[in-house]
From TrEMBL:
Composition skew (Acidic residues), residue ranges: 368-406, 413-434
Cited InterPro entries: LytR/CpsA/Psr_CW_biosynth, LytR_CpsA_psr
Key word Transmembrane helix present: yes
Region of interest: Disordered: 361-434
Protein name according to UniProt: LCP family protein
Domain Cell envelope-related transcriptional attenuator: 92-251
Family in the record: Belongs to the LytR/CpsA/Psr (LCP) family.
Amino acid sequence: MKKSRKISERRKMQRKEQIKKRRRKRIAVIVIELIILCVLGVTAFAMFKLGKLNHIGLNSDGLVNNGLAQEGYTNIALFGTDNREGEVEGVRSDCIIVASINNETKEVKMMSVYRDTMLLQEDDTFDKANAAYALGGPQAAVNMLNKNLDLDIEDYVTVNFLALADVVDELGGLEMDLTYEEVVHMNNYCVETSEITGKDYERIEPEEAGTYHLNGVQVVSYSRIRYTSGGDFERTERQRLVLEKIAEKVKASKLSTINKIIDKVLPEVTTSFSSSEILKLASGVFDYKIGETAGFPFDPATPESVPGYTGSYVVAVGLADNVTKAHEFLFPDMEYEPTETVKSINNELFDITGIGPGWVDGTGEDSVNTDDGTDDSSYDDSTYDDSYDDSTYDDSYDDSTYDDSYDSSTYDDSYDDSAYDDSYDDSSYDDSYY
């Protein structure tokens, strides 16, 4: 009797243990299901947000690659334009940045390509770097970078004035140290930038050097300044500085702020990245850190003229040498030898411009840059003064029309990109353009 009672009690204990195990299993399954639902919900939410993005892919079969692959790195072309309607062709990309992400260390290096740099275009003619986007959109611009710089860029991101202004405003503005010259020119640019973006600003008065808290319109205008001693070289430095400050503030922002930025800015962004690719990149966003920045060409020359070409150009003093320096900067752990394509472009540039290593400009001074790549001894800013007025901006730019009587009514919102065609003439290009 006692024995049967013990067996019965043992069976009860076993049944209780089995019931507990089944409960624990059910709870575990429920928890897993909840986690999956949460993940799916977050993913669906993210995909919904990303659905607002303008996705225009690149034709992978039509991408130029000189046979090189920067393994371990993700290279992205960043373009800045002033278009407001999401166009990707017929507008100039006057902010051109190669962003290279080290996939292991998450360091992001940025290299600006000066917009006036003379490079070989997709149609095998030479023109300014910013002409590529105007003539063939992001595909032509990416191909230009890959062909001339021996890169393997497969993706791009394009933002306009309004996108940058919105980001800055949602972040609460940026603290910037400004020189007297920068304050004056920023105030001038703000008039047109405000009209383009439809956003307000307060003019800085009195105009003096100092640290200022700038809103979106002011930051965009600051990024457009080129009428200081460094010209376009310093402008690209300002653009990179703005991106660094934005990245710092985004990292320190609340999720609600980031959500607002996404809602406002995504419709103003055009990219080749798919939603899944963006999610993959975004998963490590807080691990990314901005590294060094530089400008290309590293050794620039600004000749008074180029035979057979109209307008002013920036010419690399030895393209192959400058491309080598670009690779040493972006990919310091990789060996590099210029391809035959880059060597051929190098030789063609020399035949056209007569500019190569050891070139001396009209002043008798070596034009090769010896400091930080932001200034050039041949650069002459005497033509730019504080009376700059960008109200004269139009497609038929004529310096003779310039005077102090600024009238913002001359600015025409009816942007017509039909003005840009295969007969692109940069001589009509206005220096006030971003």
